[in-house]
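#onboarding

Welcome to the new folks! Below is a worked example of what a typical request in this channel looks like: someone posts a single protein sequence, and someone else replies with the predicted structure as tokens. Don't worry about understanding the tokens yet, we'll cover that in week two.

Example request:
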Amino acid sequence: MKPARRPSNPLFSSGPCAKRPGWSLDALDGALLGRSHRSKPGKAKLKEVIDLTRAVLAIPGDYRIGIVPASDTGAVEMALWNLLGPRGVDMMAWESFGKEWVTDVTKQLRLSDVRTIQAPYGALPDLSQADFSRDVVFTWNGTTSGVRVPNGEWIPSDREGLSICDATSAAFAMDIPWSKIDVATWSWQKVLGGEGAHGMLVLSPRAVARLESFQPDRPLPKIFRLTSGGKLIEGIFVGDTINTPSMLCVEDAIDGLRWSLSVGGLTQLIRRSEQNLRIVSEWAAASTWAGFLADDPATRSCTSICLRFTDPEVTALTPEAQADFAKKLAALLEKEEAAFDAGSYRDAPPGLRLWGGATVENEDMEAVLPWLDWAFATVKAEAFGR
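Example response:
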């Protein structure tokens, strides 16, 4: 039977993600509109984002935090273009965005000493293969595969190279040990449900030392430049952004960060997200048609929760037919206003993907699961003429 109760908020997109509970346009009333971002009040707003970020994530005081252009993609590529070259590079990839960074390093930067360590969707590569006498680039959480690293124990404290981490769907929902990270990046539109086009870049003292001692032999566009005259451009890390940010988006970021502190900070953000994963895990354990794309429970993401088909009749379909089945399933959930944007990523195996970050209420995650069962049964009956 069709479920009687819909989620109060059916927004399960993996980016842009749901706004924080209770959000309305009134949250943006304090936005510094019509003023320069380089004015004293403008810089103060940008500095507030940086300071609140440090407070919520407990980022060490000697790490730099900057607001940079072009979302997480811009932040990652800024790091790759500025930092890579003095050492060999190990690229760890187990989903589409990690593979994009491999393409950047091998085909765009064309570095000569690159090792690619990959795993298929649903699995992690052997993390012990990473050689930290080299630079190592990896995603903390695979947004399109629902696979995360279980912890930072595989990263040595006495590493010689840099650890460069794309943390866009992990920051604010997973415990990132900053002592193991030299570079981290994310975007506002993920775990805190902010608006797009802005990225965050965190640099350890070791990363800063690399920037100030290494001069890349490649041209760097203005929006990528982190140094001038061999020294770090410190202004970037106190609110003097490289290009013009949206002050409306800045206000929204401040709102999300203040909300984070109001609910108990990082500990509670992680708890809310992990509870969403537990809710889906209990449902999946009893499901006759769905399971996690991530095989190992220790690597299952609590933000981008990716599901695959396990029903024998559906898995017997061709890959094209399975993809069509998944699209119809996601379309029916949207039509019923039970779950928007719940389809798997276009390059991932056919299935569903539910965002379980901290802005998604646990009650809404509980409410959507009976709709998944109903929608699957409905689409299957139509597909097989029953």
